[in-house]
Amino acid sequence: MIAEKKQDVVIVGAGMAGLAASIEASAAGAKVALLDKLGGQGAGGVPPEGIGNETSRAGGGGLARTSLGATVEDLLGRHVAKGWGRIDPALIRVYLENLIEDSKWLRESVGLPYAGGRAKGKGAGVVSFLHGVAVQRGIEVFLGAKVLRLLTDEVGRVTGVRAKAGDRAIDFKAGAVVLATGSFEGNQEMVLKYAGPVMTYGTIVTGCPTNTGDGHRMASEIGAQLINLSVCHARPTDTVSGQDPTRPMENIYPMGIFINRDCQRFVDEGTVDSDTIGNAIAYQPGSESAMIFDEKARARHPEEYEKYPSKEKAIHKAATIEELAVKIKMSPEKLKKFIVEFNAAVKDGKALGLPLPKTEQAYRIDTPPFYALHPLISGLDHPLGGLKINTRAQVLDRESNPIPGLYAAGSLVNWAFGRPHTVAGVTSYTGTYHAGESGGLPVALVFGRIAGRGAAQEALRTRG
User: What pLDDT, in 10s, does the model give residues 78-129?
Assistant: First the structure.
């Protein structure tokens, strides 16, 4: 016999999106249950490190925003320009229009603590704090409860979920469900099927291995529309420290160049973000690259260099370009020839006329010693493809109609797009992940709140 529990709203997934949705739904007067397959069984308890999907691994800096830094129209334009015609402008507009107010809500109404311009404890701290807020506000939190499927009535309205807790099956009956189950980077079969062999075998998983596409599967089973499943959020990854070097060396890397093993540049370093670089690396020969810079760049930002983790092993240093090439297993002749050509093209902070231009922060690499961070590979944080939602965070079916009672938020939802493309015979990548003040945690916050409000309103309306 299957046990039953009755709620107004059931939320699946205890990351930023799920926690924001649960707090918002509860504030709207709904009786809320929050389920996550990780952690101990039963209600309450403290989530272990790692629960919260991508949230627990994120930096938390984007949640401290007090301004957009540009107009909504300008930021939306960046998304459209980089989106290959595959983004939903209405969705991005809603995100941009709500971001500052939602960040303020997180700081002032919820009381999330900050330190040094970032959420205290970064992503893991956000999960722990918001989990405490949820429990304090009377939300029933069930950890170790794996949701197996969505429950629907005879006309297709979502009426709850069936979950497995220990050796018990429980039907959580509800007026609405919010899916916030994360992406599918931990499911190699899905990554291979949807993102392809390059993103499967040309990367390492730096995201959450327990994100296995549960929400994608369950929603698809009842007719939900899945879009842009090939798109991924990736980052350049140092194989020694596991670090994304663009973060600790944020001023050094634009002064340098990224090259593949054939001594070819594949991104415009001064204008791209870590996601673009990370994706592009996966498509290079051998799915690896090197970041090269000289003493001029190091001397301008010595603190970044000195604080870089494991730099003695990760960063190669040489008196000549030819010696550097030997250390990173590249052709000395090819690398020297390329550097000479690159230096000759640098003028007024640009390097135009090359097969691949460098349009900002172009500096000659001519001051020894020379440095190479090598090898850099692509780290797969999580696929970005997922459920299609509208601006109310309602999940749409394959005819683009809202599925009654079903909402979604977080990295389960598709809001960004990008793809590889060829520039001067070299594969590069352009995407929208970081375009226009966007990022995983802020997007999860905004659409989590929208989903929580919408689910509560629908559940209370149908209950009455």
Answer: 999 999 999 999 999 999 999 999 999 999 999 999 887 788 888 788 888 9
448 CB burial (10 A radius; 0-12, 13-18, 19+): buried
pLDDT in tens, 364-379: 999 999 999 999 999 9
**Start-end ranges of CATH 3.90.700.10 in the chain?**
232-380
- Whose CA is closest to 167, among 150, 188, 146? 146
Report the topology of domain 3-230+384-463: FAD/NAD(P)-binding domain (3.50.50)
Does CATH number 3.30.470.20 belong to domain 232-380?
Answer: no
* Burial tier of 3 (Cβ tally within 10 Å: 0-12, 13-18, 19+): exposed
Strands (E), 341-450: 346-347, 350-351, 370-383, 386-387, 394-396, 402-408, 418-423, 426-431
Q: Cβ–Cβ contacts within 10 Å for residue 209, how many?
A: 11
